[in-house]
Design goal:
Elements (H helix, E strand, L loop, with lengths): L1 H6 L21 H10 L1 H27 L2 H16 L3 E3 L2 H8 L3 H13 L3 E4 L2 E4 L1
Antiparallel strand pairs: 1-3, 2-3
Helix pairs in contact: 2-3, 5-6
Length: 130
């Protein structure tokens, strides 16, 4: 989205939140056209990123439309743990609710049930995946 915004001299509407130390590469927009012409692998890289993000979008739409919230919550926890290579998430119920598009009380109730089922262990602003 930032790439397209820059090409059309518009402000990107994307917001990103990093969860660990991150390096960001900024490329001047006047160089983008040059890169696309001289390095076809650059354009291939951009299209692969778009493809990957579109697949992720389809997964979210599918989850919202067809999966129950408890299943979505457990998948969210597993994916976050996988991304951080840890079985511990430092996250609040409110943050999870915001990411999943639901109410905090729903997340809290489901996490409590998951704790009783032995799927997770809850701590203050921490979730331990069992």
């Amino acid at each position: 989205m930032s790439f397209l915004g820059g090409m059309h001299k518009e402000t990107s509407k994307v917001k990103a939140i990093v969860e660990e130390d991150t390096e960001i590469l900024f490329l001047p927009m006047e160089k983008v056209t040059l890169f696309m012409k001289e390095y076809p692998q650059w354009l291939d890289y951009i299209f692969r990123l778009y493809h990957k993000r579109f697949e992720e979008l389809l997964e979210v739409v599918n989850a919202v439309a067809f999966k129950k919230m408890d299943e979505r919550l457990l998948n969210f926890i597993k994916k976050k743990c996988e991304n951080t290579a840890s079985n511990t998430l430092n996250i609040t119920h409110e943050q999870i609710a915001n990411e999943l598009g639901t109410a905090r009380i729903v997340v809290s109730r489901l996490l409590k049930q998951m704790g009783e089922d032995g799927l997770v262990k809850l701590g203050r602003n921490k979730i331990f995946l069992m």
